[in-house]
Amino acid sequence: MRDAIRLTYALVDQWMASYDRTPAGVTLDIDDTCDVVHGHQQLSLFNAHYDERCFLPIHVYDTATGRPVAIVLRAGKTPSGVEVRAHIRRLVRHIRGRWPTTRVTFRCDGHYARSEAMDWCEDNGVTYLFGLTGTRLLTAKIEATADAVRTRRVVENADRVRDFAEARHKAKSWRRERRAVARIEATGRGLDIRFVVTNLAATSPRIVYETLYSARGQAENLIKAHKAHLASDRTSCRRAVANQVRLVLHTAAYWLLLAVHDAVPAARDLAKAEFSTLRLRLVKIAVRAQETISRIRLSYATCHPEADLFQGLVTALAPRPRGAAP
Q1: CATH no. for 2-130+168-178+191-259
Q2: Which of 81, 78, 90 shows the shortest CA–CA distance to 174?
Q3: How does pLDDT run across 225-280, given as a tens digit for each residue?
Q4: What are the residue boundaries of the Transposase DDE domain, all occurrences included (predicted)?
Q5: Rounded CA gap, 172 and 122, in Å?
Q6: 295 vs 3, 26, 289, 291, 321, CA distance in Å?
Q7: Alpha-carbon distance 138 to 170, whole Å?
């Protein structure tokens, strides 16, 4: 168990080490994904939303760079407020142990908008943007803007009209009022309202939703790369610790392919390729391996279409001596 925990924290250390200098701020996206199981492994539960027996591992990404931060195996149920707070607290404390002055911002779906998590973030100087489920009371507070959006769409005969609003809101489980930002969109199908709760103060509602919160959609693509392209949903061991180690190994593979992807010259078509394409064209290749006392030599076919790319990657990925300039 302790080794699995250390390996998981090693992923966070790897992410932090990927920065040349301490960043002024980082934005981390937290989301979970359905990992279907076909047995009765530890932590597997039936989830009515997915109609499957599954795990719901938590993925944390630095979406701006595409780098994974942490992957944690967990039971196949929606996390409670205490659990969400615990994950955020452990991660922030580990980050601040090395980056004490870095501003940390979390973006999460609505089922992470728990009062325990928001209270802890506010008490510890952490910024958050959480999706928020709309209620009749909350919707009534922005009804004037919503009515204006509906009217403008009809008057202008537009396909879509969008506007933003904000209100102070306090749910029953919250200890204080918080800022709720609404994205209001009217189309021919009706009115669609989405809410975000945040402790950001001096930022317009449009920027909060369109620029800051909506960017979390990229995290879905990163989870897809981890889960589908690297088959990280193959968590078939009986014990939960063993499956956590599997997730760590798949994340290590993610880092390796990310390094290869970043080393591909921008002019090549593989510079924008997904991990599955990189595996097919650069990894799943027949070679002749010759092992000597001091090295392992891999001989590729001379007619390989990516031969020149391989030569460049060897130079780009070669370890540099300590203290050498990048």
Answers
A1: 3.30.420.10
A2: 81
A3: 999 999 898 898 999 999 999 999 999 999 999 999 999 988 888 889 999 999 88
A4: 7-319
A5: 18
A6: 30, 40, 10, 6, 18
A7: 9
Contact 142, 193 (CB under 8 A): yes
Residue 113 to residue 169: CA distance in whole angstroms? 13
Residues composing the chain = 326
In the chain, where the domains are located: 2-130+168-178+191-259, 266-317
pLDDT tens digits, residue range 3-44?
A: 899 999 999 999 999 999 999 999 999 999 999 998 888 999
**What DSSP element (H or E) covers 193?**
strand 190-198
Q: Which residues contact 27 (CB under 8 A, 6 or more apart)?
A: 62, 63, 64, 105, 106, 107, 212, 215
CA-to-CA dists, residue 83 to 8, 90, 155, angstroms: 17, 11, 48
pLDDT for 321 equals 63
Over residues 49-61, the pLDDT tens digits come to 999 999 999 999 9
- Please count the other Cβ atoms lying within 10 Å of the Cβ belonging to residue 187: 13
Amino acid in position 153: R
Residues 82-87 have a mean pLDDT of: 95
